Amino acid sequence: MGKFRIDLLRHGESQYSHTLRGHLDDELTAKGWQQMQSTIEQVTDQSWDIIVSSSLKRCACFAEELSKTAELPLLINHDLKEMYFGEWEGISTQQIYETSPELLANFWQKPSQYCPPRAETLNQFQKRILKGLQDLLTHMQKHNLQHALVVTHGGVIKLLACLAEQQPLDDLLKMSAELGKLYSFEFSEADGQLTFMLR
Question: What are phi and psi of 91, to 5 degrees?
């Protein structure tokens, strides 16, 4: 398997941007759409062969529009959704801090060991994201594609940045992934092991 380049675009501001929205399916605001649009317009090397998107509206609506204007195939990948925050879905960290300060602090500092009530664990999240990427790379290899644009979420980008830089997963929430910004990675596979690095 050769090398693949994957650019990850984080969705822009959405209706519930001030909360942990996880799998909540909120829409982009006009500002959020603009954030993504201006990032795409600034990309000089738009040599994408395919656009891939999380199935949530804050990613998929923009991806659909872009695939039409750029005349590129679109693949919706359910595995590349944001982390599921269980009972914290749609709640602001301020509210959580008022009701469960200790659990919030634990989750923030050691997400590998603590997770919100009834939420996805970091380990489950990582498995799901890596499966989604594996499926994408298999698809790219099969169709001879080199370069993909993936419209996805902050948690996904932070997780990949942690893995690429070989940082402990507990640093996940400290990684940066700004709304509407693009992060480039290079992926390669050897002996069934997926390796990737930030470009």
Answer: -115, 140
Q: How confident is the model at residue 191 (pLDDT cuts 50, 70, 90)?
A: low
Catalytic residue among 11, 13, 120, 153: 11
Catalytic residue status for 139: no
Longest dimension (CA), the chain: 51
Mean pLDDT of the chain: 94
In the numeric block, the tokens 């890596």 are attached to 130
Q: In degrees rounded to 5, what are phi and psi of residue 188?
A: -145, 160
Q: Is 172 helix (H, G, I), strand (E, B) or coil?
A: helix
Prediction pTM value = 0.94
Q: Exactly one of 13, 82, 89, 120 is catalytic; name it.
A: 82
d(CA 13, CA 70): 23
